[in-house]
Design a protein that fits this description.
Layout: H1 2-55, H2 63-76, H3 84-92, H4 101-115, H5 122-139, H6 144-163, H7 166-175, E1 178-179, H8 187-203, H9 221-255, H10 259-277, H11 287-296, H12 303-317, H13 324-342, H14 346-362, H15 365-376, H16 381-394, E2 405-408, E3 415-419
Parallel strand pairs: 1-2
Antiparallel strand pairs: 2-3
Helix pairs in contact: 1-4, 1-5, 1-6, 1-8, 2-4, 2-10, 3-6, 4-5, 5-6, 6-7, 6-8, 7-8, 7-15, 9-12, 9-13, 9-14, 9-16, 10-12, 11-13, 11-14, 12-13, 13-14, 14-15, 14-16, 15-16
Amino acid sequence: MENMNKMRRALHDTAAYTRAFFRWLLLGGLVGGLGGAIGAVFSKCVALATAAREENTWLLYLLPIGGLLIALLYRLCRVSGVGTNEVFLGVRSEKGVPVLLAPAIFLGTVITHLFGGSAGREGAALQLGGSVASLFGRAFRLNEKDRHILTMCGMSAVFAAVFGTPMGACVFAVEVVFVGRMLSAAMFPCLVSSVTGYGVAKLLGAHAEHFNVRMIPAFDINTLWRVLVVSVAGALVSMLFCWVMHTGAHLFKRLIKNEFVRVFAGGVLIVLLSVLLKTTDYNGGGMHVIERVFNEGIVRPEAFLLKMLFTSITIGAGYKGGEIVPTLFIGATMGGTAALLIGLDPSFGAAVGIAALFCGVTNCPVATILLCVELFGGEGALFYMIAAIVSFLLSGYFSLYSGQEMVFSKLNDEEVHRFGH
């Protein structure tokens, strides 16, 4: 009798798993397909906006006007104040992500890049993905738990499409909301969405990010201590970056209450700083600066600090985009600078710096390792893993995302349930 009961349970479980497999294959594929298409179009629009600004440098002087357009757009879409933290909240609660957030963040990020605000694309990717997933969740009348998973699917799909990193995108979406607790039930749905989104974006001609690390040293004690130095520096800089970003946003809101005046003033400040420094290296995402470090080994030692300042003003004032491309910029220039000081190849130092910075600000060690393998190749994977985990431990509870929940302590198995700061 007992054997019969075990057999029935086994058959019941097998049927349930099979239904879940095909169900998430369909839902994840649908979200991934739409997310991939949106991500591809979004990436091309950002690239066109960046190219237009580089060819017409006078566009930078219109940044304050662009800020007013963004503030007006968000007011019309009724999503003022809604951002990536609200997407995280959508994974934890019944509150969904507004559908109108998608056109608002899409256009807002393109405007920011067109006129020279310092921002990236990941914030838009996560918010676009969350908005797309909410649309499907309502259409299929999913229950609350399935809507949470679908929101993560949307995040992974557009992230994979925008950056061309499906493995990192899949795990990032699962890992970033709850630090220390990965929802294993979301792994397969997010994998389907990220792979589908990546495939669709690739078919539509989207460009996958990849950087060439020119010289990866042998694993020995001399290399190891240098990697540890860059990793510790990355952890410290990641904490500084998080503090600067949160402090900048807080100061702007406290000093200038009106969102239109705030974004205009922030735009004026970015223009003045760009003119004063006589460079446009810190406008837009700054991918050309990152490529310069990897391809030519050229890096200015103050670059990572100035990028922090420009990004804090841009995002804090109300311009739209993300912090991950600036994180790559800061990690590459900090790591490249440190490498030149301690006798490492700048491109290798930049890769280690990116691993340390990305993990320090997102608290996602597994996603960081996979992302680095996709960005730099697998030859230096052990070094990137060391950098990520050292930075994860030393960066404490700092995070770019105040909506990120730290479920477990980084020191032991104690539950802490703290939010990023």
